[in-house]
Amino acid sequence: MKTQRHFTTYLVVCALVLIAPLIFKNNNYVLHLLIISLVWGVVAASWDLILGYAGIFNLGQIAFFAIGAYISGMLSKHLGISPWAGIFLGAIGAGIAGFLIGLPCLRLRGIYIALMTLAFYEVIGPLISVGRVIGTGGQNGLFPIPPLSIGSYVFSSGNLIPWYFVAAAFFIVFLFVIFKLINSPFGLAFTALRDQEAFAKSLGVNRYVSSLILTAIAAFMTGAIGSYYAHYVSVISPRLLGLENFLFLLIMVILGGAGNFPGAVIGAFAVTFLNDWLRPLGNYRLLVLGALLVVLIILLPKGIMGTIDTLKEKFVFNKHKGELS
Fold first, then answer.
1. What does the pLDDT read at residue 99?
2. Is 142 helix (H, G, I), strand (E, B) or coil?
3. Of 40, 45, 21, residue with least CA distance to 229
4. CA 166, CA 228: separation in Å to the nearest integer?
5. Cα gap 101→166, rounded to integer Å
6. Do the strands 149-150 and 153-154 form a parallel or antiparallel pair, or are they unpaired?
7. What pTM does this model have?
8. What gap in Å lies between CA 74 and CA 138, rounded to an integer?
9. Highest mean pLDDT out of 4-18, 102-116, 162-176, 196-210
10. CB-side exposure of 321: number of CA atoms within 13 Å?
């Protein structure tokens, strides 16, 4: 039943994503926000796979986004490698980074994983800043990063439709991968490890190996969309790893509903548009978003998807109760 609901929701989200450019094809402002929503939707869904479903407190997900972005940007800008190849190599690089950081971290538990991955996240920014000698651009950032192209056609900021459909393709494919992972025997294994670790281990599930594979997959997807983002915006800097983006990502997952596919995606769209509408507030924007995070934890502890499920269960219960009486 839950698998069917997941798939139905996935199809609805994909249908809306494919219809959107037909409605907003002449509105670059909305198209840009939709593209950014698709990008963060992949990052949020990948993080939710780790945090919400597997129960692994990995706080370094944005670092994989930055790693993918910088690898692809540097290869394309400095070595002239095709941006498409750069995206693939950026994803591979982020996946390897996820695997390597997981080797020591995932032998730990709970808060210790959070501290180790947070330390990893914190150290990437300074490394990029002092990495000017290897082509990171340092504090000034890396720019201009070559745009995507197909044959002689070069994607431009004047026409966002091609950019949108590439982002949509990544979004649809990666969301399907996440859906299949969640609803596969492997998905049941890491969910069981989250809920009943002793029981899962008695069935032969290896916590360390399962967590390591999942972390690498999530890092690969995050790195791929990070690579795409670098070519889309044409400029990246250590600000990618700022507290602002971390806070946004956290709100996305909590608002949508951690461990409730595809809640994180819904949260990504909501937060992206809300953040843009709050820009006139300047520095107070983060204060408002921080307050929103506190309110969400209090009022919607299960997020949007979790609340919908709860209301649906109450409705079904009351319906059956009425029929019995």
1. 94
2. strand
3. 40
4. 9
5. 29
6. antiparallel
7. 0.91
8. 12
9. 162-176
10. 6
pLDDT in tens, 177-233: 999 998 888 887 778 777 777 777 777 778 888 889 999 999 999 999 999 999 999
**155 neighbors 89 (Cβ within 8 angstroms):** no
Tokens 């407190």 belong to residue: 57
- CA 78 – CA 318 distance, rounded (Å): 64
pLDDT digits (tens, 9 = 90+) for 237-270: 988 888 888 888 988 998 888 888 888 999 999 9
Amino acid at 33: L
Query: Could you tell me how many helices (H) and strands (E) the chain has, helices first?
Result: 13, 2
Amino acid letter, 82: S
Contacts 24+ apart (CB under 8 A), 96-99: 96/216, 97/63, 97/64, 97/67, 97/219, 97/223, 98/64, 98/215, 98/216, 98/218, 98/219, 98/220, 98/223, 99/212, 99/215, 99/216, 99/219
Q: Can you state the angle between helices 2-23 and 161-182, rounded to 10 degrees?
A: 180
- The amino acid occupying position 132 is R
